[in-house]
Specification:
The complex is a heterodimer of chains A (316) and B (256). With 316 residues, chain A is of the alpha/beta class. Chain A has 2 domains: 170 residues, HUPs (Rossmann fold, 3-Layer(aba) Sandwich), CATH 3.40.50; 119 residues, Rossmann fold (3-Layer(aba) Sandwich), CATH 3.40.50. Chain A is built from 9 helices and 17 strands. A 9-stranded mixed sheet of chain A has the order 9-8-7-10-6-1-4-5-11. Chain A has a 5-stranded parallel sheet with strand order 14-13-15-16-17. Chain A has a two-stranded antiparallel ribbon with strand order 2-3. In chain A, helix 3 packs across helix 4 and helix 5 runs parallel beside helix 9. Chain A is elongated. The mean pLDDT of chain A is 96. Chain B is 30% helix and 30% strand. Chain B contains 7 helices and 15 strands. Chain B starts with a strand and ends in a 5-residue tail after the last helix. Classes of the chains: A alpha/beta (316), B alpha/beta (256). Chains A and B meet through helix 4, strand 7, strand 8, strand 9 and strand 12 of A and helix 5, strand 9, strand 10, strand 11 and strand 14 of B. Strand 12 of chain A pairs antiparallel with strand 11 of chain B, so a sheet runs across the interface.
Chain lengths: 316, 256
């Protein structure tokens, strides 16, 4: 039977949440297509293959000393071996840092079309229709492949995590891994800093709309101090050097869940939302009424943050 | 080192978007600019050239309007460029663009490094650079946050989740896709803008460079997302809305 294969992701000997989300995606899609759901896992041994078998009926385990750490060349060769030997129709990959690094290369290696950064997949007339974010989350589009096989990457949270409970079969797949052209020299921390914003009850966060470093300080930092909370920022503020990296919220920074998260001049790109959507009360202040941040906020003010925030401070 | 930078022109994301016939955006109300991530790639290339010499060539697929932003990269300091202006490429997908870029870069000759943004702000696919590397037969690294070049040895930091970076070593020729924040892109100077007008820009059709790839994906339609949880929008002028918000945070949400 044709297979829909999710690629497992692991770091420091643990499966990522995205892996369990893709187990759910593989089951749903395989069900709708009359195919068999499976997970392929690349590792130095099959410890984690046994772990992921709790979530999916079939695990295709590629073990090789060259797969101890992630490399695009290593993963592509291993996944290609799985696709070529296992009657694979579709490959599902997390739209994570590693996923983005290898998914398109896998698509090239197996001659498949790829639809990336998807948040939904549905079967219509026998083919899979993918929905994905475009234009900074302002517009969605639907796409499908016109090739026999497909590769798709899914953004975090596109599917709920599959619950453990089964006892799937682990099948070994052998792959020759040769000519790995990148060499990892290790993983380093780049956001070390004295402040730990993840413990704050109140966070005032500023984005690109804060205009410059002085205005960010005048508005965001001072409101945070007035509220007795911490100040934080979205990626463009840190990229521009207006505050230090330890205060960056989002996929590439900190994950926070305070009682109050006030986002000013932040559009609400999915990478930012990933780091703060668990907050109890979210306030959005933005000039653009179409900004995606209003889709997840509790309260919103459509207006100029340089007028709204000073007015707020007067009332505190 | 001869460096090619793949640059895309994209809408300013602050624009008011309107969708026409479920198929495309209404460009009449849109301002266009260099894809932010590609702007960092241009800066990275210029810094390498300043340090070790060489040449920076801009390669762009796009309609007539793209020429403005290729000239913008020239004004920053890029040397010359290739503009593939072909409706057949515009109608294609990331694979068609990657294949066209490959042919354009091969036509330059002697390119040792390709830099581009990790993704385009409009398409958000993050696949074209990786496809290009595969077509060239070169290694790649995505989400590059730091880059050091020593001869043909490359040391790069690849951004990971939660503030982590992986440090990698690889050899040129290679394709690197750059993440924002890797540097501080310069603004063009007035002399730069004057010089940019005279720099060489070759305008090509796909056939001129031997590109003829067919799309592997089909676009179906586009639409505005329907939100499941829309914020309670607090009305009034700034002072009124701010006062109401403070009141709600105190007495309704009870979070301050």
């Amino acid at each position: 039977m044709a297979k829909i294969v999710a690629i497992a992701e692991h770091r420091n000997g643990k499966l990522t949440d995205a892996t369990l989300e893709l187990c759910k995606a593989a089951k749903e899609l395989a069900g709708a297509l009359g195919a068999e759901p499976a997970v392929a896992i690349m590792s130095k041994d099959d410890t984690l293959a046994k772990e992921v078998a709790k979530y999916i009926p079939l695990v295709l385990s590629v073990t090789n000393a060259a797969l101890e750490g992630y490399t695009a060349d290593g993963y592509t060769q291993a996944i290609k071996a799985v696709v070529e030997t296992q009657d694979v129709k579709g490959v599902l990959v997390p739209h994570s840092y590693d996923g983005v690094d290898y998914a398109a290369k896998v698509a090239m290696a197996i001659g498949a079309g790829i639809v990336s950064n998807c948040n939904k997949a549905a079967v219509e007339g026998g083919s899979v229709v993918f929905t994905r974010n475009t234009y900074n989350g302002k517009i969605q589009e639907m796409k499908k492949v016109n090739t026999d096989k497909f590769v798709a990457t899914f953004e975090k949270g596109a599917y709920d995590m599959e619950a453990a409970g089964g006892a799937g079969t682990v099948t070994a797949v052998s792959a020759d891994i040769a000519n790995v052209r990148t060499k990892s020299k290790g993983i380093i921390e780049t956001m070390a800093g004295a402040v730990d914003i993840s413990q704050a009850k109140i966070i005032v966060s500023g984005g690109r709309g804060c205009k410059d470093a002085d205005k960010y300080k005048d508005v965001i930092v001072s409101l945070a101090q007035k509220l007795g909370g911490e100040y934080a920022a979205s990626r463009p503020v840190v990229d521009s050097g207006w505050t230090d990296p330890a205060r960056q919220v989002g996929q590439s920074g900190k994950t926070v869940a305070p009682d109050l998260y006030l986002a000013a001049g932040i559009s609400g790109a999915i990478q930012h939302v990933a780091g703060m959507k668990g907050s109890k009360c979210i306030v959005a202040i933005n000039k653009d009424p179409e900004a995606p941040i209003f889709n997840i906020a509790t309260y919103g003010i459509v207006g100029d943050l340089f007028e709204v925030i000073p007015a707020m401070k007067e009332k505190l | 080192m001869k460096i090619a930078v793949c640059l895309k022109q994209v809408p300013d994301m602050e624009s008011k978007f309107k969708i026409l016939e479920d198929k495309k955006i209404d460009e009449s109300q849109i301002a266009f600019k260099i894809n932010d991530f590609d702007n960092y790639a241009v800066e990275a290339a210029l810094q390498l050239k300043e340090k070790a010499g060489g040449e920076v060539v801009i390669v762009t697929c796009g309609p007539d309007r793209s020429a403005k932003d290729i000239r913008q990269a020239f004004a920053m300091g890029a040397d010359w460029g290739i503009h593939v202006n072909d409706p057949a490429v515009e109608a294609g997908d990331n694979f068609v663009v990657a294949s066209t870029l490959q042919k354009a870069i091969e036509s330059i000759g002697g390119v040792e490094l390709v830099l581009t943004g990790v993704q385009a702000e409009d398409d958000q696919a993050a696949v074209t650079g990786v496809m290009l590397a595969d077509l060239m037969g070169w290694p790649h690294c995505t989400n590059v946050k730091k880059l050091e070049v020593n001869g043909t040895s490359l040391t790069v930091n690849r951004e990971l989740e939660g503030g982590l970076n992986e440090v990698l070593e690889m050899s040129a020729p290679a394709v690197l896709t750059v993440q924002s924040g890797i540097n501080e892109p310069r603004y063009p100077t007035l002399p730069g803008i004057m010089k940019a007008k005279k720099k060489r820009l070759d305008v090509k059709k796909a056939a001129d460079i031997g590109a003829s790839a067919a799309a592997k994906t089909d676009f179906i339609k586009m639409f505005f997302p329907v939100s499941e949880h829309k914020a309670e929008i607090i009305q009034g002028d700034a002072a009124t809305a701010a006062a109401k918000l403070v009141e709600k945070l105190k007495n309704e949400a009870k979070v301050i």
